[in-house]
Each structure stands twice: as structure tokens, then as C-alpha cells.
Amino acid sequence: MDRLQTAIEKAREQRAEVLKQRPTNGPLTDVGFLPETVEHLPSREEIWQGLQSVDMTARALRDLRLMSNQGGSQSVPYDLLRTRVLHQARQNGWRHIGIVSPTAACGKTTAAANLAFAFSHQPEVRMLLLDLDLRRPRLAGMMGQKIETGMEDVLLGRVPFTEHARRMGNNVAIGFNNGASERPSELLQSIQTEERIAEITEQFDPDLVLIDLPPMMSTDDNFGFLSKVDAVLLMVAAEESSNEQIEVALRQLGELTTVMGIVLNKCRHTGGAYGYDSKYYYS
């Protein structure tokens, strides 16, 4: 995580240096013009508002089981998860949080999408959600987004994140993928990816960056990347994820980063926890 923080500080210094070159008075400044030799840097508010918005119908939300956007008791599990994640992040000074699972089909991407909706209802908190499951990206399809570029293009410098990302509400920005990467492991573990995420973090200045990552036991993609995040949420599936799979995932994660919690997905009953039956249980 120290390397990612160093990269963020470097990006911040570069932005500050450009801002110093802006003229502070004169007629050209008054009408919004800058000399051609100075790059115009929009304000963070302009950056956020300049993103294309996510457009989803209510029917699509229901079909995709994205319940946190519907309010009422169905959104309670995700609201609780949002609150606990935010509380722990603030308490520990965490900003970059990975979302992983022992194996595929544990519901981590569904949970990530619902967390995005939950955070969009809390406008004072800004959040980025990045789909970095570069082998089997599902976030765009799950949310019904047709995109021409993906996070692979952003990480490789082919397109700016500001041109690729979609905005949900006024405070959540999402980076999608439009297909599997040819060399996902090498890309995810590269210095270039680390620097690009640092640049995006500095540019958008979010309170949280949630990163949807590949399952732990499917590939080695995560092993060079997880040391760069502050903490992870481990998603497991009730009656599907075995004790052995969970123990192995926890042991692997413990060697790389901090496990902030385990989220039990597909749980039909929680024994009345929080006063509601829930599909999710946070430990």
C-alpha cells in the first residue's frame, strides 16, 4: 500500500505544479482563457459532473437483483454493509478496498453493484467502483451498460478515465470492462496499473475506492495487486463456499493485506440480525 500512496502523492504534486502556472489575474483569466502553454485543469466538481451518467430502468434493476436502488427493507442489507465499510475505512484511514471471493459465483460483483447504489444515496460521500476482474468482467453486463472502452484501455493509457467512467448520481463513478484482457495477470500486477489508479484517485479525490477483483483460487492475478490496497472484503456463498475454501482464502489474504470483514452472500436467514432477514451477513 505504501507504493500506491507514494504514487498518489506524486500525482498530487504534479497537479499542484500545473496549478501554480495558472495566471491569477488579467482580462484573459477573467473570461476563462488560459495561455496555450498551460494545461487547463478542471475543478473536481467539473470532473465529476462531466462524466456520462449510468442509465438503468427500474425493470432492469429488478431483473438484475440490484435491490439497493429500490429502497425499503430490500435495501437494508446493503445500507448496513455500506455503513460498516465506511465506518471501518474512516476509523483506520483506509481508502482502497478490494472485493474478493474464494471462487467464482459467490456474488461479489452483485454486492459491488449494490454497494455502488447504496453509496449513491449518501451524497456527501464520494466513491469510485473499478471492475478489475480482467478475466471475467461482469459489472457492465450486470448493470446493462453498453460501453466502447474498458478499464484495460484506461490502465494502458489508451483513454482517460474521465472519458470512460460512468456516473451514478452525483457521487459515484464506475469503471467498467467491455471484455476479457489478453494478459490480465501481467496488467493487474504492473507498475503502470498502480500509477494509473493513483492518478485517478488524485484526480477524483474520492472517500473510497472499491475494486472488484478476481476470485482468489481461480488465478494468480490478485497476488501482486492486493498488497497495494488497504483492506479487502471477502465474499463467501452460504452452503456453497466450503470451510476449506474460506480458510485458504483467508490465509492467502492475510499474507497480502488486511481482511476487514467476511460477507456471507445468499444467506436466506440471519437469525433476526438487525431486525431483518437478509441475503447478506457481515462478520
TrEMBL record:
Domain of life per record: Bacteria
Stretches assigned to the AAA domain: 105-256
GO cellular component terms, semicolon-separated: plasma membrane
Pfam families listed in its UniProt record: AAA_31
GO molecular-function terms, A-Z: protein tyrosine kinase activity
Signal peptide: none
Source organism phylogeny: Bacteria, Pseudomonadati, Pseudomonadota, Alphaproteobacteria, Rhodobacterales
Coiled coil regions in record: none
Biological source species: Aliiruegeria lutimaris
The protein's name in its UniProt record: Chromosome partitioning ATPase, Mrp family, contains Fe-S cluster
